[in-house]
Write a structure and sequence with these properties.
A hairpin with a 2-residue loop joins β9 (215-220) and β10. This protein has a 6-stranded mixed sheet with strand order 6-7-8-3-9-10. Strands 2-1-4-5 form a 4-stranded antiparallel sheet, with helices on one face. Helices cover 36% and strands 25% of the residues. The protein is globular and about 55 Å long. The relative contact order is 0.16. The chain is an alpha/beta fold and 255 residues long. It contains 9 helices and 10 strands.
Length: 255
């Protein structure tokens, strides 16, 4: 694939099937450096399937995926490991390990990829916890002792553990009340601006799409229908897109 330094994720002609059921077919997608890309689609359309396929957690039957200039699907294990260290992931519902404390959850990626002394690991955890706006007394708590909003922030701190270039967020505001969701959106914007992150965010939250995202990609008919600014997406001539963005629960947009 032709290299473009501004494109940090390039997906071309990706097809994914499970038991002969086609989920994605001939899908193309570009994610630009430094942007927050909102990825949206109907329930069961394959949003999380694509995210997991980009990360190599699902197998694609065809196509190419380039991450940070590397042919990720065909890269050697050593090269893929180098790329993996530059990616952070917040899975839906946080996916924290219930038997581990906040400190231990955040340290997991560091222990897997880095060889650091314990005192430095502890200092890094404090830094990550501070970045996501959590008090230090959360360090020794277990996930069962945390609110939904705190779980999302701990999971985000873990996603930031290795100082990634790209962060993948899968439904980051699901289960949060409107105030908590708005605060999380603001946190994502602040972290992007402060750390120079690129953010790939799967979401169905209209407020997140309107307030946090630079561009929006819409999945439908097994492919990306449109990948554009909010105004471009809102005006795209597709029945599902029009119902989603201009339907009964739509927000006003200045055109």
């Amino acid at each position: 694939m032709e290299k473009d330094q501004n494109i940090v994720i390039k997906v071309r002609d990706i097809s994914v099937s499970f038991s002969n059921f086609s989920v994605l077919k001939g899908l193309d997608l570009d994610v630009h450096r430094g942007e927050i890309l909102g990825f949206v689609g109907g329930s069961g359309s394959g949003k999380s399937v694509l995210l997991r396929t980009i990360l190599g957690l699902n197998a694609a039957q065809s196509g190419d995926i380039e991450i940070l200039g590397t042919d990720y699907r065909n890269a050697a294990d050593v090269e893929r490991t180098k790329i993996d260290q530059r990616l952070g992931v917040l899975f839906q519902h946080g996916a924290l390990f219930s038997s581990l404390t906040v400190r231990e959850n955040i340290q997991l990626p560091m222990r897997e990829y880095l060889n650091l002394p314990e005192n430095l690991l502890d200092e890094l955890v404090i830094l990550k916890l501070t970045l996501v706006g959590l008090p230090l007394d959360a360090l020794h708590k277990y996930p069962s002792e945390l609110s939904g909003g705190m779980i999302k922030r701990v999971a985000l701190a873990r996603a930031l553990a290795l100082d990634p270039d790209i962060v993948f967020l899968d439904e980051p505001t699901s289960g949060l009340d409107p105030i908590g969701a708005a605060e999380f959106d603001e946190l994502i914007i602040t972290l992007r601006d402060t750390l120079g992150l690129t953010v790939y965010m799967v979401t169905h939250d209209l407020d997140s799409l309107y307030t946090a995202c630079d561009r929006i990609a819409v999945l439908g008919q097994k492919r990306v229908l449109v990948n554009d600014t909010l105004e471009g997406v809102v005006n795209y001539d597709d029945p599902w897109i029009q119902e989603y963005f201009n339907g009964k629960r739509a927000r006003a947009i200045v055109k």
